[in-house]
Amino acid sequence: MSALITRRNFLRSSALAGSGLILAGCDQFDFLGSRENPVRHAMEQANVLTYKVQRTLIGDQTLAREYAASEIRQGQRPNGSTAPSTPEYMFLQMQNFEPYRLTVKGMVEREVSFSLAELRNMPARSQITRHDCVEGWSCIAKWTGTALGPILDMAGVKPQARFCVYHCYDNIQRTLTGDILYYESSDLVDAYHPQTILSYGLNDQALPVSNGAPIRLRIERALGYKQPKYLHTIELVDDLSPFGRGKGGYWPDNGYDWYGGI
Ligand SMILES: Nc1nc2c(c(=O)[nH]1)N[C@H]1C(S)=C(S)[C@@H](COP(=O)(O)O)O[C@H]1N2
Ligand SMILES: [Mo]
């Protein structure tokens, strides 16, 4: 059995044990105030518990499993946005992403930005990993890019920063009041993880538009929705509540766990 599976089973049982405990404790704690929905609260606590277990017991820099090239069985299945139609993105696509820049801003000593050529000239890392989508499918693929950590260091992350918010070009949802743009976030442990890369290559080719060109982030110990495609800005913040509906990402705003660790 692989270390990953063992770890998953361990986390699953810890989370279940945790939620059971908290559910059992609800009656006792109800006097503390009128929670609108104690069960929902318990589930949120279970997510927090999974996060804490992973952070304290598993170790911050544990690597996600990497696979052999022979285990790549098919192309990376495109999912979610596959052809962004915002004018900003379509302009870049027409220009072959020549004018593209990745910006790092927010709680940093100095705002920095990089062209695609500059990112490609930085030390590269390739990793063959498994992408797990909550919809119930997985793909093993080879991702090539440059580590995010050194880029954050070039910007100089201020001590009060706690999260990276990842802003994307694509309108994942169109509403009467305007487009909703995809975004995600992570803590700094995941941002500085050695397998966290700004990826521009997929299976030894340039990253296709359908998989997030020109740059998509890989956070290998997290579920598919934590892998933002069409990334243009990384914002260092100490609070996620001002973004979207305040849960730290498009899918977390729609009910998924923010951490999404696997
Ligand atoms: N910008 C952006 N990033 C995104 C999405 C999206 O719709 N837009 N979908 C997410 C989901 S749910 C998954 S499973 C993966 C799909 O990545 P892929 O198309 O490379 O397989 O991207 C994630 N990142
Ligand atoms: Mo997904």
How would you describe this structure to a colleague?
With 262 residues, the protein is of the alpha+beta class. It has one domain: Sulfite Oxidase, Chain A, domain 2, CATH 3.90.420.10. Helix content is 30%, strand content 27%. It has a five-stranded mixed β-sheet. α1 crosses α2. The longest helix has 27 residues. It is globular and about 50 Å long. The structure holds ligand MTE and molybdenum atom. Molybdenum atom (MO) binds next to loops. The ligand Nc1nc2c(c(=O)[nH]1)N[C@H]1C(S)=C(S)[C@@H](COP(=O)(O)O)O[C@H]1N2 binds next to β5.
List keywords for this structure.
about 260 residues, alpha+beta, five-stranded mixed sheet, five-stranded antiparallel sheet, 7 helices, 10 strands, globular
Level-1 CATH class name: Alpha Beta
Which structural class do the helices and strands define? Answer: alpha+beta
From the spread of the alpha carbons, the general shape counts as globular
Biggest β-sheet: count, sense, barrel? 5 strands, mixed
Termini separation: 16 Å
Instruction: Enumerate the strands of the largest sheet in spatial order, edge to edge or round the barrel.
Output: 2-1-10-5-6
